[in-house]
Each structure stands twice: as structure tokens, then as C-alpha cells.
Write a structure and sequence with these properties.
By secondary structure, this protein is an alpha/beta fold. It has helices spanning about 15-30, 40-45, 80-90, 105-115, 140-160, 175-185, 200-210, 250-260, 280-300, 320, 330-335, and strands at about 5-10, 35-40, 50, 95-100, 120-125, 165-170, 190, 215-220, 265-270, 305-310, 310-315. GO terms for molecular function: 6-phosphofructokinase activity; AMP binding; ATP binding; diphosphate-fructose-6-phosphate 1-phosphotransferase activity; fructose-6-phosphate binding; identical protein binding; metal ion binding; monosaccharide binding.
């Protein structure tokens, strides 16, 4: 019996369960694969915490948020992790692994492939910042959730004549801020690719106020105003050595209120952007990626990531997948900036 292991690693994301369902059903129907799941990402691999994934276990899960496998930010490259992964693959007689994750997970998958361990990657990030795929599942859901929340902030801001600041996710790129900000009619959108001064932000806020509006600012968590060397990250580093972001919205709240005299309130949307049911777009994309991951394994295309290019699902080398982040181009930001203030 051919066998594959599936794991989800890093932050959870709407659509993960649709990937799992697509892989299990596609592998069973088209290739006769048997599947096992690893609990909590690479931790489950290293501790050999596994359970069977028959097709009955994935019934109706495409619409569910989160991941039925659980997830963690365990780094499999630390210590004797690589040998631990190799031992697990051998013990459970796996042809290879399907690793569903973002930048950190895919980097680990690339290293494991270099050590002779078969892995196919599936890109998972609400930030939509992987350069080798046009869209990542979860992004559409996160934008929808953020937009709905920002719409609610607007009504309370208008009632109290306040400036409202909404902080959204976006570690390396401001795609969520750009899309949710444009959709909600924000008076300023602040993203890490395009630093602006506090004076400029205040100018946009005052312009909106002077026209009788309640100013609305949408800021990505990694935004740093001009003159600041790094994003606001008071909580240290994660297990992959990356800053734990969050809090720039609260910092802006104080600065804007002090500089403009307008009562200001900040809301950090945080993990609500990761939770809840995926949109129809994300369910379809995630299902297609799951199906393609199994086809890649069956064809021996290890060391690759399945990717959306146009309307097609293709394979790209993991090195290429990690080679360049997809950031917001200057033209896209300037397009939105016409509406600021």
C-alpha cells in the first residue's frame, strides 16, 4: 500500500481542511493511497504522534475553519530534528510527506528534501506574500473578515466622531491592508512596503475630519513610519527567529490623538482574520491544491510546491517558491493613495 503523511504547520488559515480533503479523496480515488495525519505539525512528526486519515475522516470538512490536524510552530531543523523526521518516515513506511504551511514550513521542507526526505509543499498564508503563486488560499477569507470588521468600526467611529485605527495582519507584505482598506473606504492605508511619515498620516486624518468624516486608518502589523528602523515587535522572536509583530495600531492611536487632537481608538483584529469558515474562492483553490499535491507525489515531483499561475495549478521548485516575496508594487499603492485623506 502506498502511504503519504500530511501535516499543517505555522499559523492556521481558512481553507486548510479543504486541502486535506482534496488530498485524501484524490489520493484514494486516483492512486489508492493510504494517508496518516500528524498532530500539530512538525511536532507530531518528531514525536510520531499520528493517526489514520481514511476518506471517512474528511467528510464535510472543506467548510470548516482551522485544521483538523492541529498545528504548531515547531522547527524540525533544530537539534536532531532532521533525523527524527527521517526515522518517522521510515517507521510508518511513507512514500513522502505533504507539508501545508507558509514561508517557515516551506523552508524546512526544502532543507529536508536536500537531506533525501520526500516532501511536497502546499503554500498556506493569509498574507498572500509568496512570489511563486498568484494567490494563497486564506487570503480571500482574511480580507473578507477584515473588511466586515472595519465596516463595523466605521459606524462606531462616525457615531462618536472618532478616528478609528484598524490593525490587520501582514508580516512581509501589506496585501490584506491594501485590499480590506480599499474595500472599506479607508482614509489612509499603511503597509510595510511604503513607509510614510507620521506628519503625512496626520494630514490624511485631518483632511477627512475637515470634510466632516470620521477618519479611518488601516495599518498592516509590520508597518513602520518613516524614521523607524524596524516594525513594532515588543514580544520578541518566534521559533523561526522572526519578530512577533503586533501593536503598531495602538502606537498610532496615541500619536494621532496627540498630534491631531481627534479622539482616536485602535483595534487589533489579530487572530479573527485566521478563524472562521473559508470563502468559496478559498475552498475551491485549497481543494485544487490538495488534489495537485497528491498528483505531484504520485509523479515523484518531490521538492516542489503546488502553485496557482493564472487559472492553472503548476509545480515550482521549493527554492524558487522561497526565492522572492510578493510585495505590494508601487503602482498598486499609488492607485489606492489617490483616495486617501
Amino acid at each position: 500500500m502506498k502511504r503519504l503523511g500530511i501535516l499543517t504547520s505555522g499559523g492556521d488559515c481558512p481553507g486548510v481542511n479543504a486541502v486535506i480533503r482534496g488530498a485524501v479523496l484524490g489520493g484514494d480515488v486516483a492512486h489508492g493511497y493510504e494517508f496518516i495525519g500528524f498532530r500539530d505539525g512538525w511536532r507530531g512528526v518528531l514525536e510520531q504522534d499520528v493517526f489514520p486519515l481514511p476518506r471517512t475522516s474528511v467528510r464535510g470538512i472543506s467548510r470548516l475553519g482551522g485544521t483538523i490536524l492541529g498545528t504548531s510552530r515547531t522547527n524540525p531543523l533544530v537539534g536532531k530534528g532532521i533525523e527524527g523526521v527521517r526515522s518517522c518516515v521510515r517507521r510508518h513506511e511513507l512514500d513522502g510527506l505533504i507539508a501545508i504551511g507558509g514561508e517557515g514550513t516551506l523552508a524546512a521542507a526544502r532543507e529536508l528534501c536536500g537531506q533525501g526526505i520526500n516532501v511536497v509543499g502546499v503554500p498556506k498564508t493569509i498574507d498572500n506574500d509568496l512570489g511563486a503563486t498568484d494567490y494563497t488560499f486564506g487570503f480571500d477569507s482574511a480580507v473578507q473578515t477584515a473588511t466586515e470588521a472595519i465596516d463595523r468600526l466605521r459606524t462606531t467611529g462616525e457615531s462618536h466622531h472618532r478616528c478609528m485605527v484598524a490593525e490587520v495582519m501582514g508580516r512581509n507584505a501589506g496585501w490584506i491592508a491594501l485590499h480590506s482598506g480599499m474595500a472599506s473606504g479607508a482614509h489612509a492605508i499603511l503597509i510595510p512596503e511604503h513607509p510614510v511619515s507620521l506628519d503625512q498620516i496626520c494630514s490624511w486624518v485631518l483632511s477627512a475630519r475637515d470634510r466632516g468624516r470620521a477618519p479611518l486608518v488601516v495599518v498592516a502589523e509590520a508597518f513602520a513610519p518613516e524614521g523607524h528602523q524596524a516594525p513594532y515587535a515588543p514580544r520578541g522572536l518566534d521559533t523561526f527567529g522572526r519578530p512577533r509583530l503586533g501593536g503598531i495600531g495602538l502606537l498610532l492611536e496615541g500619536e494621532l490623538q496627540t498630534r491631531t487632537g481627534i479622539e482616536t481608538r485602535a483595534t487589533v483584529l489579530g487572530h479573527i482574520q485566521r478563524g472562521g469558515e473559508p470563502t468559496a474562492f478559498d475552498r475551491v483553490l485549497a481543494t485544487r491544491l490538495g488534489l495537485a499535491a497528491v498528483e505531484s507525489a504520485a509523479a515523484g515531483r518531490w521538492g516542489t510546491m503546488v502553485s496557482l499561475r493564472g487559472t492553472d495549478i503548476v509545480n515550482v521548485d521549493l527554492g524558487e517558491a522561497l526565492g522572492e516575496l510578493k510585495v505590494v508594487p508601487e503602482a498598486r499603492y499609488e492607485e489606492a493613495a489617490v483616495l486617501f485623506g
